[in-house]
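Page 42, continued from yesterday. The earlier attempt failed because a stray header line got pasted into the input along with the sequence. Redoing it now with the clean sequence only.
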Amino acid sequence: MAEIDAWMAAINSVLWHNSVLLVILGTGLLFTIWSGFCQYRALTHGVAVLRGRYDDPNDPGAISHFQALSAALSATVGLGNIGGVALAISLGGPGAVFWMWVVGFVGMALKLTEVTLSMLYRNTDDPDKPRGGPMWVISQSLAARGENWGRVGKAIGVVFCLTLLVSTITSGNMFQAWNVGELTESYFGIPSVASGIVLAVLVGMVIIGGIKRIGAVAGRLVPIMITLYLLASVYVLAINFAEIPNLLTLIVRSAFSTADATGAFIGGTAGYAFLFGMKRALFSNEVGQGTSPIAHAAARTDEPVREGVVAGLEPFIDTLVVCTLTALVILSTGIWNRDAAFSLDEPPISLQTEAGWQFSETPLPERQANVWPDQANVFMIVEADHNPQADAPLHRVEGTVSTAGSQPSIAWQPYTGDTQPVADGKVYETLVGATLTARAFDTVTPGLGKWLITLASWLFAFSTMISWSYYGEQGMVFLAGEKAVVPYKVVYCLLAVVATAGLLQTDTQLDNLTGIGTGVMLFANLPIMWLLGSTAMRAYKDYIRRLDDGQIGPGHKPPTLEELISGRDSSAASREKQQS
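This time it went through. Structure tokens are written below.
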């Protein structure tokens, strides 16, 4: 496992080099300025479109604007908002939140651009099964330039689909199932693999019905789960309201300076705050990956830009609202820099071995012997070589509790460094991803995190997995045609079980795995946006001009909330249109 971890870390170091992050940030700023700050249009006109006033059942597409956004949000508002934010803070410190905000803002322009392109080049030969996404954008745009260019476009589309499948397997499926399994086992003692099996069955029951069933489920599920989570977050923040001004100051200050080590947090530099904040925000809102355009391409509309404007709301809801509330809950409760769970009777001593500096197996203090379950994950902080992430000579050494023998003990993983590590004897509970967020809620009202985050995690993971299954399905259709859909769906569901079978155990492993999935898609999709971004901007400016001149207006009164959620709003619009 150590060799696999090192291999994944090496890949991530290339995919997530600071220069790559700066390129993404620069691309977002470019489209923000080029579009004249389209974020404003997303928050105004996008809301009006989302309300259903522009829906027309005669337009090509399979689902309404509301259902398309719900399907895309069901993929983005997932465990990245619960577990991903916790990972960003635990690894990068409070400053990571600032860079998540930056990604959320410029991401609105990136999302609008990539979805507009997808709508411009989508395939609507079958109106009930529209096909869209970067693979169609590049293949069709280059095919228009000649046969040879068409082959190049097809090849680039294949590369994108391969990266799409990697991200589907890791970020959209395994990350979700793993977090749910860990959280459920932590609180209820149910084996993680059992959660994986249940998720696989539930997801399979939905994805059999295709995008229409996914849109219908997402349209009902997403508003409920977001509202539930936001209400609980506001409750926690109301109790800790006095801490919020100081936390906002801490976030901004830590984004540009070193955050000192406190408790379980080993410290974090401004560079690592930037790295983990950008990475987790991009994982959460999927900006630049080219996944959301696949869902939005199914929307009913004859105005490509209109759906792009609606899509601009995604990063706002996902990152600037949901992720921010999660971050403030974690920071305001202090769970990210918590005190040690207990201290050992004697600090363990390390000896140099072929595997590295190895701490001897450590007996649990008698008072802790019956507290910790078998195979519980813990860690201690040791002083050794300089750690560039912490800007201090501090490192985490992971351990596993064993209660199988007569004397409960902790087996430690080796430390691989030049300097002999020195431990202080303090032991911390390993809280990874969603589990850390759950404990934050528990510190305010015992049991709140246990039930709320468990429920939210199941809902978020389920909704994310059904939408990501559709993304991967469209990639398979592009690569191998409709015949590959059923085998793909079977494998997709089985991977949820594989992810919960104990292969991943720490937040670093989890970060490396999902980082690869997200990173490869960015490398495939960003060049497409650079090549065709001017096409999207011309279409956007033309649409806004017609909107401002009054050439485009709502075709009917907004549907009722029930019609909007159910997808029957377009039928109501059609009746009204016919009567007039």
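Notes: The chain is about 65% helix and 10% strand.
Reminder to self: strip header lines before submitting.
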